[in-house]
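Lay summary. Proteins are chains of building blocks that fold into shapes, and those shapes determine what they do. In this project we predict the shape from the chain. Here is one chain we studied, written as its sequence of building blocks.
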Amino acid sequence: MRKIADQADEQLVDATGYSLTDLGIDPLTFVEWMLVDFDYKLDGAYDNGDGTGTVYADVTLRDSMAFATTFMEDAQAAGDLQSLDEAGAKVLLGELYQAAMDKTTAMTTDYVSLEVVKNGDSWQVDEDSWGDELDYLFGL
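And here is the predicted shape, written in a compact code that computers can read:
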């Protein structure tokens, strides 16, 4: 959750110049919202015979693209943010971000594949594969 929160915070800084914290939103609270009703169903796991494998799953989660669209449309409809001082802009963007969270309840289903590696008697998810799938699932 911390990794997703950090990425969400970084993405907002890139888009607006402000972090979630700057807008009065706890990044972990945002991630918790994203994971409401998260579900998955394994679709297969395959051993490649060389200490690596692949796990496939269908996942259901909040639609991050619908959220982003809602936030951007609401921010554009709010008018010229440039006319506000920095404190006012942060407050307004924070309110719009929270409102977009409250309004966006759409779920989406995606398909993921995770590369795994055998470590002793257990399998572990490859970190690069995990990072790629987080980026894909959460739009980060």
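What the prediction tells us: Strands lie at 39-47, 52-62, 107-119, 122-125.
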